[in-house]
Amino acid sequence: MALKEMIATKFDLKMLSKNPRQKSALLINPPVYDTQYWAEWSQPYGILRIGALLKKHHYKRIELFDFMETDETGKVHRHKINPEESYEERDNPTKPIRPYEITKNGEVLELYKYHFGKTWPEFGAWLQEQGLTAKNPPDEIYISAIMSYWWESARDLILRLRRRFGQKSTIILGGIYPTLVPEHAAEHTAADIVVAGEVEEANGLWTDLSFYRRAPQYAIVTPSRGCPFSCAYCASKTLNGGKQVVRYRPVDDIIAEMKYKYETYGIRDFAFYADFLLWRFEENFMKVLERIVREKLPFRLYAPEGLDVSLLSRSQKLVDLLKRANFQKIYLPCESIDDQLLRSMDRRHVRLEHLVRAAKMCEKAGFRLRNLEVNSFLLYGLHGEKIGHVVKTIIFVSEIVGSIIPMLFTPVPSTAIYNRYFSYFQKQGWDRDLHMLNGKLYPFLKMNEGSISDYVDLQRLMFMLNSHYRSKSFQLFGDTLVSTSFRENLNNGFSAVVDKYKQIGFLKPTEVLKDKEATTPEEET
Ligand code: SF4
């Protein structure tokens, strides 16, 4: 079949043969291949909505295998794998296992790649247990692939399914990856249908959690879709069919979904996922919060992707309402304090003062700063960034908010930044090897000023500033004597004393003793 014929931009269940009442379907959330993975708020809401859609159409049998389902402690399994090895046949990596080697100017950073989530043998055993064999294959298999840099696990999964079921099952690949790069998905995976875009009929459906044997501890709720902006690094426009409009779900429906999940599964933790949650908040998101407060619903709320500071900083009433509705944590995005860099990313609606104001307003509403209740995302590893600017941003964010969440920048296919650097990526072969665009592998390292040591040091600096003692992080520009003295010592020549003492390691003990000029830190200051 020609690649274009495999790509469905308007996928509809009617495109498939047979009466739904006679069909069986298997839903799969693939494993993740990456150097790090956080299993928080990672419920596969897309595939859970497809499950709801199939139920609505009365499919005879629907099963879910979620490789990324956490255990009782909220963790997922992981084991090391080799960087460029395929696991379509092998369950385990060839030994010895090699790490990725990121190199620049003679320095090498080794990073191990892992398979996160349930293992291939576990999956095979589960299929067997379900009686899903070559003789009894599911009619349809729906796979949702999220990050484009995780594409390899979708490839391996589909090839494994092909080996098991042959051509008897129709394999449908959807999600963010095939929406952003449908031709890549059609060429490099063995899916029958590549869904590029939304499955419209599933959009407004509630995620169906009944497929899990053990009820999840939380649920993801999508109150709206779409964004009026088009930042150069964001794929929101492509994911919303090229449109820059926000579509809202009715407030009643959102509240009904949350109440149902509370009453049915005992879920109290809800994470809101939306491209731009706060757009026209007075008529939409605030109404949801008001209902939660008015009805005294016992929920704990989160918006793990962050709240836009330009809108948040407009309304103390909104921030107060977040607190009253029991928002547990606030995440404030702060890409950089470098205005030029922000302009190059088309972040025209956000200014630094918005972050500062939003942080202050959060504090006024009762969220504690410097205490992990208010956190700020800091984007680095960006094309053309200066290390000095990143350091300034780190210090600034640490001072204002007190807790930094470092985010290494990934150029996402289909975005303006990806297109701007496409010829560079193409030269490296990364337009095919999309996993190499993963921010954790520093795709812009070679064209940036910073060395490997510099980037490692940036992380150390952030971790150091994030450290807590008695529920607070240290404030570099605070007004305690310690903060004042710390700052003074950076500028009063004390570094010369430190440098002198650092030389001691290179001197023989007798020479050290003879060093009459050496003074103790106390004497010097
Ligand atoms: S980064 Fe946020 S504001 Fe910018 S386009 Fe994406 S969703 Fe919209």
From TrEMBL:
Cofactor(s) annotated in UniProt: [4Fe-4S] cluster
Region described as Disordered: spans on this chain: 78-99
Any one annotated GO CC term: cytosol
Pfam families per the UniProt record, alphabetical: Radical_SAM (PF04055)
Occurrences of domain Radical SAM core (ranges): 213-445
PANTHER family tied to this protein: ANAEROBIC MAGNESIUM-PROTOPORPHYRIN IX MONOMETHYL ESTER CYCLASE-RELATED, PUTATIVE-RELATED
Protein name, entry field: Radical SAM core domain-containing protein
Lineage of producing organism: Bacteria, Bacillati, Actinomycetota, Actinomycetota incertae sedis, Candidatus Hakubellales
